[in-house]
């Protein structure tokens, strides 16, 4: 086969349609196989399989009513320990004997989490608490009162 000395693209530089004419061929969406996602189940199926295998179908599930899902707003015991003095000044915590009484629900939280150190004796009133948080409070000489339950 004869080698092309001059590239075709060099010859056709400057022309708007590169030698195909302004009407018809190589001009509209027909040359592309359709507009947008046309042909994804037909002539572009191999492209879908190769580059976007997850293009079609569904994954996972959608909750019917996400409003029923409980929203956990947690605070760590370390933060409670650090904030205890400030909360007493603001009147959001009180002293009961040698313990600082903190009602977590009044601060806008509904669960006490176990990150941090407890250096003060705290009496924490909360709806929920993790085991590690309870352990740290009790080991520091404090106590935990669970709201809505009989244990304390």
- Poorly predicted parts: none
- The total strand number stands at 6
Any guess at the CATH architecture of the domain at 74-146? Ribosomal Protein L15, Chain: K, domain 2
The number of helical elements comes to 4
Structural class: alpha/beta
Order of strands, main sheet, comes to 2-3-5-6
CATH class of the domain at 74-146: Alpha Beta
Q: What is the element string, with H for helices and E for strands?
A: HHEHEEEEHE
The general outline is rod-shaped
Which range does the strand content fall in? Answer: 15-25%
Distance between the termini: 93 Å
User: What is the rounded Rg?
Assistant: 35 Å
Describe this structure in words.
With 152 residues, the chain is α/β, with parallel strands linked by helices. It has a domain at 74-146: Ribosomal Protein L15, Chain: K, domain 2. It is built from 4 helices and 6 strands. The protein has helices at 8-11, 45-51, 77-90, 131-139, and strands at residues 74-76, 93-96, 99-103, 111-113, 122-126, 143-146. It has a 4-stranded mixed sheet, covered by helices on one side. The protein has a two-stranded parallel ribbon with strand order 1-4. Strand 5 (122-126), helix 4 (131-139) and strand 6 form a beta-alpha-beta unit. It is rod-shaped and about 100 Å long. The model has no long low-confidence stretch (mean pLDDT 88).
């Amino acid at each position: 086969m004869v080698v092309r000395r001059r590239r075709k693209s060099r010859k056709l530089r400057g022309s708007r349609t590169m030698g195909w004419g302004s009407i018809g061929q190589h001009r509209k969406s027909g040359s592309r196989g359709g507009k947008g996602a046309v042909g994804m189940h037909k002539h572009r199926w191999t492209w879908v399989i190769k580059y976007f295998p997850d293009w079609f179908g569904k994954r996972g599930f959608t909750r019917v009513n996400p409003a029923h899902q409980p929203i956990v707003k947690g605070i760590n015991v370390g933060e409670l320990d650090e904030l205890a003095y400030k909360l007493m000044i603001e009147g959001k915590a009180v002293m009961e004997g040698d313990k600082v009484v903190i009602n977590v629900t009044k601060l806008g939280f509904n669960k006490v989490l176990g990150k941090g150190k407890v250096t003060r004796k705290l009496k924490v009133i909360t709806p929920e608490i993790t085991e590690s948080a309870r352990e740290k409070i009790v080991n520091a000489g404090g106590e935990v009162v669970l709201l809505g339950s009989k244990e304390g």
